[in-house]
Amino acid sequence: MTSDILHHTVPVFDCMETVRRLWDYLDRELSDDDMAAVDAHLAACSNCPPHFTFERQFLAALKAARSQDGASSGLRARVRAALEQGSSAMRDAGGAHE
Amino acid sequence: MRRWLFTICKNVFLRGAEHERDTVSLDDDPMNDTYAAVRLHNAMVANGESLLLDRIDVAPAIARAMQQLTEPFRLAVSLVDMEGYGYVEAAALLGVPVGTVRSRLFRARRQLQESLLSHARDAGYFGTSTRPLGGAA
Fold this sequence. Notes:
The complex is a heterodimer. Chain A is an all-alpha fold. In chain A, 70% of the residues lie in helices and 0% in strands. Chain A starts with a helix and ends in a 6-residue tail after the last helix. Chain B has helices at 2-16, 30-46, 52-55, 58-68, 71-82, 87-94, 98-122. The radius of gyration of chain B is 17 Å and the shape is globular. Chains A and B meet through helix 3, helix 5 and helix 6 of A and helix 1, helix 2, helix 4, helix 5 and helix 7 of B.
């Protein structure tokens, strides 16, 4: 137990450091240690969780609105075209697998 | 399939955009928009507007707000928030550094929230409110 603590220490974040990582945390773009540190702070703090809850709800609403966003369907076609171009280039270069 | 596409995106990004990583100016610091989003939420709580997303018809309001974004910001939101791409994938698809995706994404989210709140206020969901958007610390 003690050796675990010595070998691996999760950072400790205050409110400012936690809020600073709000979007990265909700997007799951943080390192495992930083995710754990934000989780730990949110479990102990009464000020920060409402912000994270609201922003999580906002992101869920954005995702749910995807089907009604006309720009998104056009974007999907463009992304597909870009990816097809990219995959062709990769195949030509002999670098695409899987 | 998705993993393969991600590998392509990652390779494209690593080859073409890594050297641009340090070119994002301080004006584009995504942290400013992160803190601004929190200030906006604080203001909404103070004004009794924290139930914004429960009060309005969210999907059409978001669709309208999306149209108000400029193309680079709309693309960032569409790719990450609507299509589910990660920052690195979106950066590769857009041909920009990851930092640029983050700054565009965070700025776009703030603008979307401000648009939604303005829409709700204009539609009378919260009665009259005089506190400016994002004005509370």
